[in-house]
Design a protein that fits this description.
heterodimer, A: mainly alpha, AhpD-like, 9 helices, 0% strand, B: mainly alpha, 10 helices, 67% helix, globular
Chain lengths: 187, 193
Amino acid sequence: MAHIRVPEGLPGILGPMAISPESTKALRELAEVLLRGPNTLTAAERETIATYVSSQNDCCFCQLSHGAAAAEHLGGNYELIDRVKVNYSAADIPEKLKALLAVAGKVQKGGKHVTAEDVERARNAGASDKEIHDTVLIAAAFCMFNRYVDGLGTWQPADPQAYREMGRRMAHVGYVRTDWEKPGEAA
Amino acid sequence: MAHIQLPAGLPGIRGPLVFSPATTQPLCDLVEALLRGPSTLTLAEREMIATYVSAENDCYYCQTSHGSTAAQHLGGGSAEYELIGQMKRDCETAPLSDKMKALLAIAGKVQKGGKYVTTEDIEKARSHGATDKELHDTVLIAAAFCMFNRYVDGLDTWQPRDPELYREIGKQTAALGYAGRDWKRPLSTTANK
């Protein structure tokens, strides 16, 4: 049971979102622009950064749902996302994404952990200032979303299939349209 | 110098906000809803939660600007600024209500990580009169400042140490909020006005 009373059957962040419309509108728009807005980082890369930070924060709901969204952007490559979470340095991803994940991992620990060397490494691998900015903000935003979800003790489904369905909708419908989010539907 | 090329003369979060207009609208909407929107927590209480979390995250710009805004909401005198300093040093012994102390304890747990918040923390706040919505807002304000602090420090933004500047930021923010404020103006221009 969650720490506070939220509508039943809504998984993870959807429970607290349902009781706070003003903040929810801003949170949804933030997720949409960060993860699906126009960008030189692909949607898969941005969802991968979100997933990695969420796994470092040990947030089950966020890492499984965004991991599924990343995998769905990659045509269903769930194995790659699992490898990134376990050890991204050894995963089959471009050097630029590895360097950005290193920056994101530092942000997860705290903003001051990011060094000039981390940023230089990303730049040498081809990352632009905008891509470095977006990586820092995505990582920071998931330090918020993860804390919102776990800090309120939300209900997080155990069934992996529920997350595949969520991931498909997050990848292909996005974060602003809410008509598909019905209580219990994902469970 | 910041990690990326940011517009000159804008302190703290203002540099990245101007650098990235597409993300700025939802970020400003979020902080306006959390810290200024309808709530049974006072403006000062919400700014204090933001300040406390920013201090725990060691973010100079956020703790000083939001601390100043909280002090301004409380009256803006030196006693109010001192209260904010006391709260940052030790919220347990600061002269605050039991409800506020219990909410700050929850915010401090959220700062460490969401899973640190216990049923006992929640029950304690509830026993001092906190509602579900106030608990929700406390957790989300604390979580949001774990984002803002990382955004500000993760890009190594310019964070001046001039107390007068933060007093001014606090006054402006307490009066005008986060949505319509003229924060895009470079600092030198503002100071010369």
